[in-house]
Write a structure and sequence with these properties.
The complex is a heterodimer.
Chain A: H1 4-17, E1 21-37, E2 40-58, E3 61-68, H2 75-86, H3 100-103, H4 122-139, E4 143-144, E5 149-162, E6 167-185, E7 188-198, H5 212-224, E8 233-239, H6 241-254, H7 257-261, E9 282-284, E10 307-311, E11 314-315, H8 322-327, E12 351-353, H9 360-367, E13 370-381, E14 387-398, E15 401-414, H10 415-420, E16 422-425, E17 435-436, E18 440-448
Parallel strand pairs in A: 8-13, 12-17
Antiparallel strand pairs in A: 1-2, 1-5, 2-3, 4-6, 5-6, 6-7, 8-18, 9-10, 9-12, 10-11, 13-14, 14-15, 15-18, 16-18
Helix pairs in contact in A: 4-5
Chain B: H1 5-21, H2 27-35, E1 44-60, E2 63-81, E3 84-90, H3 95-105, H4 138-154, E4 158-176, E5 181-199, E6 202-212, H5 218-221, H6 224-240, E7 242-243, E8 247-253, H7 259-267, H8 272-276, E9 297-300, E10 321-326, E11 329-330, H9 337-342, E12 350-351, E13 360-361, E14 365-368, H10 375-380, E15 384-396, E16 402-414, E17 417-423, E18 426-430, H11 431-436, E19 438-441, E20 446-447, E21 452-456, E22 459-467, E23 470-478
Classes of the chains: A alpha+beta, B alpha+beta.
């Protein structure tokens, strides 16, 4: 393998020589994926990927060259060619690299990497996958051996250097077991999925309990069999945590500084306003040890910071990189994304809706009559207005209990209004991705069916 | 278009030299390196080497705001034993790294099963000569400016215009243990324009895209001004459109862009991997009537310059045309090597995003052939429904066949006449079910101009879609206005 630090130092030196400033973002990712079906390993994938992004800046202009692979030959020529094109760009005084005080500070150890990646026991993982598949198939004879049981593991070393003296790196790993179950009845099929994801291998369920992944997927798939439409009308809706996650993701999009710069958000000019009820608090915290969205420093080198984005209904801050913060004359929030082939975008750390009390079942009981939305097809949203219309499947709830599966319906409304109408929040976040939400109960929403 | 022999020889020489310069061992040696893991005559091994270069330019808020270039180099090694696949890739093409990948990929175990491949004859020559991405961007910037100026000139309501142009060239060499050596140099051009209009306090956006496997000559036939006009038209349309009604009603799917619905809800479930596993709504239905008599659906990789076209698939096999559904009868699926061997047929549709991925059966350009009805006849037949002309995207659940699509430009129809423009509609239904609800197929097949990208197993590849106007007896429309 090429020594990445040497390559980066070389790029920094060439950039300085050619009279421009530069940021070099590099990552080496080792990964392993194993898929098992009918007891046999059907796919075994291993790889080492190297991504390099070079951002060159000169006269308030910035240009990107990216490399996937170790194609580092003729680097000086490539940088020179890029600098010839840079003259065609329009200057933009907000494009810059961070200066030393902005990227100073202690880098927190967030315990994101597990060296166990290097000692993965493939035969043991195979046994785990077999357990998952066997447990799913044994759960009910309606489950067909169709999909694979999957394991994936990866370990990434990320580096960031600039001509301004920034020199930081961190590592993280992730491990995941998952299964998609397919249930069949009367020639009709339904599928559902379950996974366990952790940064540390030994935080995953033990081999004795790993079969639960298959059982949960199977149970969820079976519950969906026989889904029907329901009549159109306004209804109370419970969003299970996975659908609530999709909704929170859309709220996150509206807080994205770059979208605000181009006014492509329903939260333009709303900073400081009390938009939502007291019960709604949304936090972005990239500094939680071992969590999916954690990072010690962002894509421009600023250390991550915890922010109460929406505090008891009041909008405190947007999420920024240096460009959107400068353009909107706001403070840096440490949310620049780590990108290789473009200018840094914006990404949240661990972005979550603060929990309330109780379980999904409690919310269903509290709703009494309405819809439990358990799967969303998020496709139609107007970012400027927040109006949406999504495909949905889930369950009809009558007198506090689930009475039948529902499919082929749509729900429509406005994201902000939906959050305004939240009347109960559960305490059931699942940390599998950087955006998580507990289940929520919404007082009214338009449902279209028959 | 076919390629004359000397051209093909030149392409082969150039491609071999390109990879050789990047450190890849010569072809003869590759054959022996990949033969190393073969323990049984039925085992299969392959190397897929790729070199890509691309450049993207963006104009935003009247400024040339972004230029970026990217270089991609690497090789993926695949070993197949029976139904099982071992795969490893490297981004360093040296002999040592390739050998390491071969050894990792060969760890896969499986019961040997004879595997045959379609092979490569190099019969197609479907694209324009590749564009040299390394040149200075003067011509590209002129095109972006032309689109921008036109958009601002159409209406004072136009507040903001973003335009981008991306050009790339992907060079491939595939060598496998069946003796195949395949080569391809694939250009891809994509243009897009987003227009924001503002009236009083309301903002709406319009988007139009175009491109294909073609160079800048694309704009001779498709002037940037025309693409800009369409984006402005859609944005202005949305300003005046009313919220869509909700409930079950008749639907006219517009020609061209409604092909996305065909791609997602019919095309994906006809990919053989889902059927091999029995997880598709169409599994086990070959020879059965699955659609109205009027429906004939094909997948064609061999349309010159189209976004989804490929001279060779990503497993080194000749591509072509496949009739999937003929007058309502399901004829066949789309195959990669593994599934083609399972179903004992030819593979032509193995595709992958890059050397970092393993191939799957994928679509190229998926079309529904024209029927007999004129648009007017179809419109007149609608008592109460919507005309869904363009779409912004959609999703499908392959297993159940359930789908959802978002209509961008739509119209409410009553008593055979368009009543008013509407927005915010979502169509929701089930692929196999709506195929049976096709009442009329129009005589106006249109191929939607190069804009669609298909995602599967996390891999994104360019595809084409095409469809005539189609009338469905009913579908659920999700809108904000309840009936």
């Amino acid at each position: 393998m090429t020594d990445l630090k040497l390559v980066a130092e070389d790029i920094i030196a060439i950039s300085k020589k050619l009279g421009c400033t530069a940021q070099v973002t590099m990552a080496q990712t080792d990964s392993k994926e194993i898929s098992l079906r009918k007891g046999e390993i059907e796919k075994l994938l291993t790889s080492v990927a190297v991504s390099t992004g070079v951002r060159l800046l000169k006269n308030n202009k910035s240009i990107i060259i990216s490399f996937s692979g170790e194609d580092f030959e003729n680097m000086e020529t490539k940088i020179k060619t890029a600098l010839e094109s840079i003259d065609f760009l329009s200057p933009d005084k907000f494009r810059r690299l961070l200066n030393p005080p902005e990227f100073d500070g202690e880098i927190k150890d967030l315990d994101l990497v597990d060296t166990h990646f290097d000692q993965l026991d493939i035969p043991l993982i195979k046994e785990g996958l077999k357990h998952i598949e066997t447990s799913a198939l044994a759960f009910d004879n309606k489950i067909i051996p169709s999909e694979t049981a999957d394991f994936s593991g990866s370990k990434t070393h990320a580096y960031l250097f600039t001509t301004e003296g920034l020199d930081k790196h961190f590592s993280r790993s992730s491990f995941c077991f998952s299964y998609s179950a397919i249930a069949e009845e009367n020639g009709l099929k339904e599928t559902d999925h379950w996974s366990e994801w952790k940064r540390h291998y030994h935080d995953l369920p033990s081999m004795e309990h790993i079969g639960r992944i298959g059982e949960i997927a199977a149970e969820k798939a079976i519950k969906r069999l026989g889904g029907k439409k329901i009549p159109s009308g306004e209804r109370k809706v419970v969003f299970s945590y996975r659908t609530a996650e999709s909704l929170l993701d859309l709220l996150g999009d509206a807080l994205d500084g770059e979208e605000l710069v181009v006014k492509n958000s329903f939260l333009v000019d709303r900073l400081g306003e009390k938009l939502l009820p007291d019960t709604i608090t949304v936090i972005d915290d990239p500094l939680i040890p071992r969590f999916p969205g954690s990072y010690p420093f962002d894509g421009e080198g600023m250390n991550g910071i915890k922010k109460i984005v929406i505090e008891k209904g009041k909008l405190n801050t947007y999420l920024h990189n240096s460009y959107s913060a400068a353009k909107l004359k706001m403070n840096l929030t440490g949310n620049a994304s780590r990108t290789y082939n473009s200018e840094p975008h914006i990404c949240a750390g661990n972005f979550y809706l603060q929990s309330g009390q109780g379980t999904l079942d409690d919310l269903v009981h509290e709703m009494k009559n309405g819809l439990l939305a358990d799967d969303l097809f998020v496709s139609g949203i107007n970012a400027v207005t927040g109006n949406f219309s999504f495909g949905c499947s889930g369950f009809l709830v009558e007198n506090g209990v689930i009475t039948m599966p529902v499919k082929e319906i749509t729900i429509a409304g406005n994201i902000l209004e939906l959050y305004r109408n939240i009347i109960a929040i559960a305490d059931d976040n699942r940390w599998r991705s950087s955006i998580t939400s507990p289940s929520i109960l919404v007082s009214k929403l338009n449902v279209a069916g028959t | 278009m076919t390629m004359i022999n000397s051209e093909r020889q030149q392409l082969i020489t150039d491609t071999r030299n390109l990879f050789y310069r990047h450190g890849l061992p010569p072809c003869e040696k590759l054959h022996s390196i990949i033969a190393q893991p073969l323990k049984h005559p039925a085992d299969f091994s392959e190397i897929y080497a790729q070199h890509s270069i691309s450049r993207s330019i963006k104009l935003s808020e009247r400024l040339i705001s972004r230029i970026s270039s990217s270089y991609v180099t690497g090789a993926g090694i695949r070993v197949i034993r029976g139904n099982n696949t071992g795969f490893s890739y490297t981004e360093n093409l040296s002999e040592e790294n390739i050998k390491k990948c071969v050894s990792e990929a060969s760890e896969i175990a499986g019961t040997p099963t004879p595997l045959s491949v379609t092979g490569f004859t190099g019969k197609h020559n479907l694209y324009d000569l590749p564009y040299l991405v390394d040149q200075n961007p003067t011509e590209q910037i002129k095109i972006l400016r032309r689109a921008e100026e036109k958009a601002f000139s159409i209406s004072p309501l136009v507040e903001k215009v973003d335009v981008f142009l991306t050009e790339s060239t992907k060079t491939l060499m595939i060598v496998n243990s069946a003796g195949v050596e395949a080569y391809d140099v694939r250009p891809l051009l994509q243009f897009g324009i987003t227009v924001i209009v503002k009236k009083n306090k309301t903002r709406e956006g319009g988007y139009q895209a175009g491109g294909g496997r073609i160079n800048l000559s694309y704009f001779d036939k498709n002037p940037p001004e025309q693409l800009a006009e369409e984006a402005v038209r859609i944005a202005l349309f949305l300003l005046d459109a009313k919220p869509a009604p909700a409930g079950e009603m008749e639907v006219l799917l517009g020609s061209g862009e409604s092909g996305i619905l065909l791609h997602e809800s019919i095309g994906h479930p006809l990919e053989a991997d889902f059927n091999y596993r029995g997880s598709s709504a169409f599994s086990g239905k070959i020879g059965q009537k699955v659609a109205s008599d009027q429906c004939t659906i094909i997948d064609r990789a061999d349309l010159p310059f189209e976004r989804g076209s490929i001279n060779v698939d990503d497993e080194g096999n000749d591509t072509g045309s496949t009739v999937l559904i003929e007058n309502g009868i399901l004829r066949t699926y789309m195959f990669d090597i593994i599934t083609a061997n399972h179903f004992k047929t030819k593979s032509m549709n193995g595709r992958r995003e890059s050397f970092q991925e393993i191939p799957y059966p994928r679509m190229t350009n998926t079309l529904m052939l024209a029927g007999q009805y004129s648009f007017d006849e179809m419109l007149k037949s609608v008592k109460k429904g919507i005309y869904a002309k363009t779409f912004s995207g959609g999703q499908v659940d392959i297993t159940s066949g359930d789908f959802v699509f978002s209509v961008t430009e739509g119209y409410y129809i009553e008593n055979g006449a368009i009543q008013y423009p509407m927005k915010g509609a979502t169509l929701i239904g089930n692929g196999p079910e709506i195929l049976k609800r096709v009442e009329m197929v129009g005589n106006d097949l249109v191929i939607s101009d190069g804009k669609w990208t298909c995602g599967k197993e996390g891999q994104h590849i360019p595809v084409g879609v095409g469809i005539p106007t189609v009338k469905l007896s009913y579908i659920t429309v999700g809108g904000t206005e309840n009936d």
